[in-house]
């Protein structure tokens, strides 16, 4: 494990268990020749933990400081303490970066991007947070304005064809916007004439669609054996007693339940980053047997840490 190398890093990425919201690099990362900002962000989220044990400890420590530096710079706002940590991460990197030369990974550090790291704190003081200088938007526009136009050409004297392609698409976008605008005006006029009345049939047709159940009428025994919900009865009884005390239903082993494969939860971001929330997906699916052309699938159960009270603040997780 300590030998490292591209093959070992690829092995670590391939072995990473799948999780909603995290990209699974099934072929590793050494074969990627041109990275996008989104791919880099996905890689950074797990890189420090994946290389632990696959590379020497001093290399892992330097990589961790670089990732710390990247995350500090991506904050939407900065305090004096945060900028101090940003500067400390950079100093730590410069102090121990020679390990890459020591192990023959690199020969020098005369790299413009590394030099640019020296100016981040000063530029944040002068220009504000660096999250507005991301290249993600320009990369996306490169796809729309360059790649798609080139692919639509015959690859000969393609510049003029690309310009014509973009002109056509801009014209189509303009007429679509105009049609949507006129449609909205017509709908507003129609609503005002009808007095915003809607009959029962219309209310039924515009209602939300019912969610399809992946598993319906599942017995408790099947939940215990296939879904590994060994404590389903006592856990459900405790939940009902604490949260629905007026409920007179007592769960038993003879009951049947509808089961979903996943739930979504709106999780708050770290307070220092933003006040917004992001939607997390929690999955739990039993193993399936091969059937026809469909291959067997192993069971998948996401691990969830739930903060239920302020008392949990006194219990830290190390590592």
Low-confidence stretches: 196-210, 314-319
For the report, how would you describe the main beta sheet? Answer: 3 strands, antiparallel
Mean pLDDT reading: 80
Indicate the percent of residues in helices: 40-55%
- Rg calc: 27 Å
**What coarse outline follows from CA principal-axis ratios?**
extended
> By helix and strand content, what is the structural category?
mainly alpha
Number of helices in the DSSP assignment: 12
Strand neighbour order, sheet with most strands: 3-4-5
Q: Quick one: how many beta strands?
A: 5
Task: Describe the model.
- With 319 residues, this protein is mainly alpha-helical.
- The chain folds into three domains: 6-136, no CATH class; 138-182, no CATH class; 215-311, no CATH class.
- It contains twelve helices and five strands.
- The strands form two sheets. A three-stranded antiparallel beta sheet has the order 3-4-5, with no helix packed on it. A two-stranded antiparallel sheet has the order 1-2.
- Helix 3 (57-73) packs antiparallel against helix 4.
- Residues 190-203 have a biased composition (Acidic residues).
- Residues 190-212 are annotated as: Disordered.
């Amino acid at each position: 494990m300590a030998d490292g190398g591209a093959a070992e890093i690829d092995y670590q990425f391939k072995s990473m268990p799948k999780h909603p919201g995290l990209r699974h690099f099934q072929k590793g990362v050494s074969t990627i020749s041109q990275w996008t900002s989104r791919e880099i962000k996905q890689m950074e989220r797990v890189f420090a933990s994946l290389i632990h044990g696959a590379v020497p400890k001093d290399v892992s420590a330097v990589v961790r400081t670089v990732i710390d530096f990247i995350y500090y710079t991506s904050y939407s706002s900065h305090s004096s303490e945060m900028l101090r940590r940003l500067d400390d991460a950079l100093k730590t990197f410069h102090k121990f970066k020679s390990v890459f030369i020591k192990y023959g990974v690199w020969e020098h550090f005369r790299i413009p991007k590394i030099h640019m790291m020296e100016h981040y704190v000063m530029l944040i003081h002068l220009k504000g947070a660096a999250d507005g200088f991301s290249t993600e938007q320009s990369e996306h526009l490169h796809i729309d304005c360059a790649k798609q136009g080139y692919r639509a050409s015959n690859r000969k004297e393609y510049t003029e064809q690309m310009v014509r392609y973009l002109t056509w698409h801009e014209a189509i976008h303009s007429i679509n916007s105009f049609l949507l605008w006129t449609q909205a005006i017509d709908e507003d006029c129609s609503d005002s004439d009808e007095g915003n009345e809607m009959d029962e049939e219309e209310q039924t047709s515009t209602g939300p669609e019912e969610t399809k159940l992946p598993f319906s009428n599942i017995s408790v025994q099947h939940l215990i054996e296939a879904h590994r919900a060994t404590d389903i009865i006592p856990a459900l009884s405790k939940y009902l007693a604490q949260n629905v005390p007026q409920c007179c239903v007592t769960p038993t082993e003879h009951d049947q339940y509808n089961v979903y494969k996943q739930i979504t939860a709106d999780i708050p971001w770290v307070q220092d980053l933003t006040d917004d929330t992001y939607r997390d997906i929690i999955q739990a699916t039993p193993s399936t047997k091969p059937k026809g052309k469909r291959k067997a699938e192993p069971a998948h159960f996401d691990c969830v840490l739930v903060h239920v009270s302020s008392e949990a603040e006194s219990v830290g997780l190390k590592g």
